[in-house]
Amino acid sequence: MEPEDRAPAEREPSRQEGESGPEEVDRGPGVVRHVWEWSRSLLLAVLLFILVRSVGVEAFKIPTGSMEGTLLVGDFLLVNKAAYGARIPGTSLHLPALSEPARGDVIVFNPPHEPDKNYVKRLVGLPGDTLWMEDKVLFVNGEEVEEPYVRHVDAVGDAVHPDMDWQANHLIASQPGQLGRYHPSRDSWGPLVVPEGRFFVLGDNRDNSEDSRYWGFVDRELLRGRPWIVYYSSSRREREAEGWWRGIRWSRLGHRIR
């Protein structure tokens, strides 16, 4: 039989000493490019997070019961900081407000006596309003205010605190010498006039709230935003007794704040 034809074997090109093949291409520039792209993406994500947190939405936790039952201890809130005009980081400038503060809004702000802390209360008095309270009932501009969200836990009596003496400087005196006889209490005070550029706030847990009755008006520049939604809530008592899973208040997740 005739021998089977075979294609001549291709000879591998010879390599000079020190010469590398195509599979040995230097990968240095590719690694550097990959690290740079990853770092740039991370940097952009961090900058975006800072921007959103500074002028958009920020998370806050409720540590006290001054707003029960609207807000509970252990509620985690998302706060719309753009609502009243967020402050530009590192400056005293503010972005244009999306809306103006309205009577009845739940707001986050820095209180005048502790400007480095965040408080959350309900706005009850606008600039120019006349406010007073009689036996726990709030009046604004001569009208009794319906407050279905308010909770009263002290049915025994009233309370007097010396920090309320500041009110005398904003009291509407109906007769000479009334200022010297003014003795405000937790449940009965006023009438007071809210100055321009200021606001008066109260806690919904009215008998157990440190608010404008004690430390005064809130300046417009100290408003931080308006709470929007409860994104997480947990009861410490239930968590410690039965575990973190049972401590979650599932019914409050996604709860809109009004």
Keywords:
alpha+beta, 17% helix, 258 residues, disordered N terminus, 4-stranded antiparallel beta sheet, 8-stranded antiparallel beta sheet
Low-confidence stretches: 1-15, 20-25
Fraction of helical residues: 10-25%
| SS-based class | alpha+beta
- Proportion of residues in extended strands: 15-25%
Write down the overall geometry.
globular
Count the E strands.
12
Average pLDDT rating: 82
Round the Cα radius of gyration to an integer and report it: 32 Å
Please count the helical segments.
4
**Spatial gap, N to C terminus:** 99 Å
- How are helices and strands ordered from N to C? HEEEEEEEEEHEEHHE
Largest beta sheet, briefly? 8 strands, antiparallel
Task: Please explain how this structure is put together.
The chain has 258 residues and is of the alpha+beta class. Helices cover 17% and strands 22% of the residues. It contains four helices and twelve strands; from the N terminus they run αβββββββββαββααβ. Strands 1, 2, 3, 4, 9, 10, 11 and 12 form an eight-stranded antiparallel beta sheet that branches. The chain has a four-stranded antiparallel beta sheet with strand order 7-6-5-8, with no helix packed on it. β6 and β7 form a beta hairpin. It starts with 27 loop residues before the first helix and ends with a strand. The N terminus is likely disordered.
